[in-house]
Amino acid sequence: MLSEKAIVLYKCDNTYSVEHERGINALDPALGIDWMLRDETPVISPKDLKQPLFKEISTNFIFRS
Q: Phi then psi for 29, rounded to 5 degrees?
């Protein structure tokens, strides 16, 4: 199900640094995302396809609310 309203937040504390960039592979089946692409091939950049699966990421940050 797609959302009628989505909020995305991210924090930047410095200028862009490719060596510090992180992400997860959006096609990871463990995420359980239904992209609703029945007969379409998703268009994903080579950079994003190389991202690790969720279970492979390391968490090295602290979140304080």
A: -60, -25
